From TrEMBL:
Gene Ontology biological process terms from the UniProt entry: defense response to virus; maintenance of CRISPR repeat elements
Cofactor(s) needed for function: Mg(2+); Mn(2+)
Keywords, comma-separated and alphabetical: Antiviral defense, DNA-binding, Endonuclease, Hydrolase, Magnesium, Manganese, Metal-binding, Nuclease
Residue numbers binding Mn(2+): E241
Matching NCBIfam families: cas1
Keyword Signal: no
CDD domains recorded: Cas1_I-II-III
Family of this protein: Belongs to the CRISPR-associated endonuclease Cas1 family.
Record text on subunit structure and interactions: Homodimer, forms a heterotetramer with a Cas2 homodimer.
EC numbers for this chain: 3.1.-.-
GO molecular function terms noted in the UniProt entry: DNA binding; endonuclease activity; hydrolase activity; metal ion binding
Native species: Methanorbis furvi
Protein name: CRISPR-associated endonuclease Cas1
PANTHER family: CRISPR-ASSOCIATED ENDONUCLEASE CAS1 1
Amino acid sequence: MTSEVPWVTVWGYGADIRATPKTLIVRGKTERTAYPLSSFHHLLIVGGHTLETAAVSHLISNNISVSFFDVHGEPVGSIRPVGGDAYPLRSGQKNLPVRSSAMSVITSALKARMMYLNELASGRDDGLFYKGELEILSDASSELEFLITLPELGRIFTLTRNMYYEILSRAVAPELGYHRREKPPYVDPVNAMFAHGYAVLYASVSVAAAGAGLDPEIGALYGNVVPAGKNRGGCVMDIMEPLMTPMVDRVVVGMAAEGRLSRRYEVSSRCIVSERLMNEFNLRLAESVDSAGINRNVRMYADAVSNGGSSGQF
């Protein structure tokens, strides 16, 4: 069987992951799936599985990266093919002007989120914004350049991001139980799918950033203004922040609006999305998680590092 997306995701529990020099073999509880190593460039392991040591050797020798996530989609670690000086831009990242670089990330992310919210609102008769919300977001965007301290930037970033996720809840069916972005364990399918989509995006950006010579751990916004989170690289989070809306959120909210999530998940201590829904989601992500767009953002970030932060917005 050939992978239909440029990555392979093994999620859940109990799979046995092996590889020959040319094929990845995943044995689940009920089926065995084979993926030619030439058909994908990234293996994402989500949850608890058994990974044969020899499989790692075959994957790395075929220039395939491996990223590990816990069952909630939170990063745990990664293995990447590297050679020579792995992160030649590390010293430049340490000297990057934090305020202007963080503000660039915030501005780009807020612009993407406002564009999407306005797009969603234009297609609704009952409106999407509560009174004053649009003005708050607009004012925040115009006032960013006048904020002096890092805590001020952090407050605006957190405020606008939280507002964005709450406003999104009005674009999906109430019975899905989504109200805002939550911390794991997720008890609704929208948050669970956000987490999976962000894991795919994180893994893709992480590989691209390392390939460009950036140290994935050293960020401007993340790590200096707001916490990057456990096992998350600040540089990766900086680069992916403006990409989350166009590459992941559009897909999740779009599928919810189409009714594709209804009755395709179970909730106990956490939300478990059906395998069929996850497969459909991965196919849509393969179209929206654009490698060219990721590489463009990585290159802009790397250029800013090389030029001491003088190359404009990321």
